[in-house]
Every structure is written in C-alpha cells, then in structure tokens.
What we know:
By secondary structure, the chain is mainly α. It is built from 8 helices and no strands. The protein has one domain (15-105).
Amino acid sequence: MTGQVPGSSRIAGTSITFRVGWWVLLVLTALFIVNHLAGTVGFAALGIVSLSVLLIPYRARESWAWWVSWAQPLALAVPIVLFRDGIGVFYLVVAVVMAVAQLATLSTFRAPTATRSAA
C-alpha cells in the first residue's frame, strides 16, 4: 500500500449505502463551498475542511472522520433559528439530507477495522 492514497483501493468493494452516503455528502459539500465563496466565509471554510475530511480520511474509514463530518450538517441546521422561511428551511432540508447520508455510512464505520476495506 506504499505510495497509494488512503482509501483509493478500498472504494471498489464498498457497500452501496456507504457509496451513496459518501457521494451525497461530497456533492452537497462541494456545492455549498461554491455557494458560500460568494457569501459567508465561515461556511465556506467549514465546507473546505469538510471536503478535505471526506476526500481522504472519511473515504479511508477513519472513525474520527465520521464524527468530524457531523460539523457541517449541524452548522447548516442553525440558520432556521434566524430565518424561518426560505433560506432557513432550505438549509434545514439540506442538513437533514446530509444527516441521513451520514447515518447511511455508519454501519461501515462500526465494522471491525479489518473488515472495513471489504465493506
């Protein structure tokens, strides 16, 4: 495994729930980065950190990456407190979709370390 990107050889054998969950998280995170580059820098920075975690340690099934990845859906759920219509509802819906995608990957992260690459 020397010289390989962590997780690069593991994606082919992953379960469908992990692949769908990972792709949903990846695409929504990337879209929010683009959206927030023009708006709030804090959300854009969180998106860049989240994308970095999703691309390498999350895909390599590092258990800490699963926990860190909750930061973005939780942060996206906050605007509903300030904006009860329109953008607040949109952010809340996206946060719920991301949370469902995150939970779809849980079984892979709960698997014993030796079997994670085969999941």
